[in-house]
Amino acid sequence: MKKATSIALAIMTLCAGAQADELLVGVQIPLTGPLARVGMGTQEGIRVAAEVFNKTNGKHTIKLVTVDDESAPAKAVAAVEKLASEGVVAITGGYGSNNISPASDAANKLGLAYMTSGGVDDGLVEAGRKNFFRINNTAGYQKALVGLISDLGVKSVSIIYSTKDATEGLATDVQKTLAAKGIKVAMHAFDPAITDFKPIINKVKLQDRSEFIAMVGYENDYVGILRAARVLKPQAKAIAGVWSLATPKMAADFPDLMPNVYGTAVLPFPVNFTTPEGKTFGETYKKLHNKEPDYLGQFGYVQSMLLFDAIARAADKGTLKKGGVIEELRKTDKQTLIGRVQFNAKGDNPNFVQRMGQHQGKQVVLVWPKESANGKPVFPGVPW
Amino acid sequence: MKSNKLLIAVLALVYVGVPLLLGANAYVMSLVIASLVIGGIALSWALLGNLGGMVSFGHAAFFGVGAYTSAVLSMQHGVPVFAGILLGGVGAVVAALVMLPVLRLRGPYFALAILAYAHIFRILATEWQSVTGGSGGIASIPRLPTLFGYDFASKTGNYLVILTIVLVFALVYDMIRRSPHGLALRAMHDSEDATRVVGVNNTLLKGLMLLVSAFMCGVVGAFNAHYINFLEPDYAFSAGWVTIPIVAAIFGGYRTITGPLVGAVVVYLVDQLFVKNLMPTGHQLVLGVVLVAMIISSPDGLFGLARKFMRKKDATA
């Protein structure tokens, strides 16, 4: 009887120990509303990170608590507060600078580290929040777009950009850098609500006569611009966009519009991981979600793994509730699936550089920079 | 006498009871504050619809202009936050003055014209970069201040401020409704031509209602800007600022004063606290179904339903 009691006690102690070691992490993400698609994509990567961390860490386990912020700033604040009331030790997720700004502010007041890959507006890192960390930024996209344009030897560029927050900032930065390199640049802003891009493409064709068209917008904008370009056939030698363009989904959904189009891409398609971490990520992603990983998932994975590692280190040091996660994130210096990640005093990752991919047949081939490329660019090459 | 006692008890409960019961829970308090923001817009919308007989799809314009006015005045000109909130209302009135020509229109034409104005203001906020920060918006908008040693930036402080704002507006609404002008407006709602025949200046009254409604909505927008501390054109002039309050007002009963307020609080809190927990995504679907059911079964909203229920109860007693 005594033996049975001691065994039961031992089991209870072990269970209690295991429970104490389970660390709650909040996921504040848009799962509905205009940002639902990108939010869900990022969340897939976050779930992969939790799965991989729990299998590999050995000592700590992460339990995710997710709240849909419905792509709305007030609900993003409420989501952070709800997560805090449930005892999370940090927050990962967030999409759209307008949601991230108030949400990370709320997290800052609550002393919670806030990690994201969904906000490239530089105002986020200039606001002076001590808890804010992001793994990507406008500068990384700018470097990729400018790098490709320079390496292709292009002399004139037309930038067609949405007047949205992040897109306008990126377009202006690209313009300045290209102009400094002596490349002729024409700027064409458009309201996010417009769907007919023929007047702008007509200007590019008849007025600019540029060799290269750069689109700084979102999926619907690219489709509208490419459709207009197929009708009007400007004499450009290449066309590129930024996020959400060089993806297998775009190739599958718009096979007539995508051939030879460039876009920022973390991964080639078919996906080909060479590092052990990449292989683990790819296999776990396929197992959990029954599909090939995309860039959103990869960003969600990287941001969350870095956060989980910092949480584990803070837990080991017993500083979880004394700002230890923020302290550990500041010390981060790691090679990840998107390259080296460090955080400066503002919480920005100065090493972030995107890669450029190109739709070639049914594949997305990485063509820039050379060290990451798995193919050569088709140039000149346009879909029309 | 009995109703006065009930009112005092309800006011005491909302002013003291809610902070005492929920003050420690930042999440629930932020939902209550958000529901009161929606309640404030719903009230201003219902005032225009009920007393002015005008269905507006453009209240986002007043909300956004009020928010930007207060944010810009407090950040760039050092205007104290509370004064900025009131001036936000004044800014919305100025915006409404620009809209006065649409009073010549009726029904869907008025609704569409005022919607177009909201879009115009959104574009202005996007393009006027030097003042509004353009599409990047304005971050770190000052919070509510500490006055007489009390921190109004706290959850309870924000709650007390927005609660006071909507209750004062409800009182103003009631006073207008009871005044001779209110009587004329209600008569006008049923037959504009008939009131014109008896000498009522319809256009002037409708114009005044538009200005009062705009002021209310602008003040609520200004408060929200200082509460969220962030503003950008798409958020400030979002169509959501019109649709959710309309749903709330219809749900509660837009022809009453308490209907839009109670409707907003009930709709928002039930949705966020209960339905969202049961259905983390797609919970808005439930609201849609409930709204349709409510419109079919009780077009006068919750209060109409309650009256029907009471009448039935009395009849069976």
Assembly type = heterodimer
Largest beta-sheet details of chain A: 7 strands, mixed
Instruction: Determine the mean pLDDT of chain B.
Output: 87
Largest sheet of chain B: 2 strands, antiparallel
Helix/strand class of chain A: alpha/beta
Strand order of the largest sheet of chain A: 7-6-8-9-10-13-14
Helix fraction bin of chain A: 40-55%
Structural class of chain B: mainly alpha
Which range does the strand content of chain B fall in? under 5%
Q: Specify the CATH homologous superfamily of the largest domain in chain A.
A: Response regulator
Give the count of structural domains of chain B.
1
Shape annotation of chain B: globular
| Number of E-state strands of chain B | 4
N- and C-termini, Cα separation of chain B = 25 Å
Sheet with the most strands: spatial strand order of chain B: 1-4
Q: Figure out the total of helices of chain A.
A: 13
State the helicity of chain B in percent bands.
Answer: over 70%
Write the layout of secondary structure elements.
The complex is a heterodimer of chains A (384) and B (317).
Chain A: H1 2-20, E1 22-29, H2 36-56, E2 61-68, H3 73-85, E3 90-93, H4 97-109, E4 113-116, H5 123-126, E5 132-134, H6 138-151, E6 156-162, H7 165-180, E7 184-190, H8 198-208, E8 212-216, H9 219-232, E9 238-241, H10 248-253, E10 262-264, H11 276-289, H12 295-317, H13 324-330, E11 333-336, E12 339-342, E13 356-360, E14 363-368
Parallel strand pairs in A: 1-2, 1-3, 3-4, 4-5, 6-7, 6-8, 8-9, 9-10
Antiparallel strand pairs in A: 10-13, 11-12, 13-14
Helix pairs in contact in A: 2-11, 2-12, 3-4, 6-7, 8-9, 12-13
Chain B: H1 2-22, H2 26-51, H3 59-76, H4 81-99, H5 107-127, H6 129-132, E1 138-139, E2 146-147, E3 150-151, H7 155-178, H8 180-190, H9 192-197, H10 202-228, E4 230-231, H11 233-236, H12 240-252, H13 258-278, H14 284-297, H15 301-316
Antiparallel strand pairs in B: 1-4, 2-3
Helix pairs in contact in B: 2-7, 2-10, 2-12, 2-13, 3-4, 3-5, 3-10, 4-10, 7-8, 7-10, 12-13
Protein name (chain A): ABC transporter substrate-binding protein
Pfam families (chain A): Peripla_BP_6 (PF13458)
Domain Leucine-binding protein (chain A): 25-348
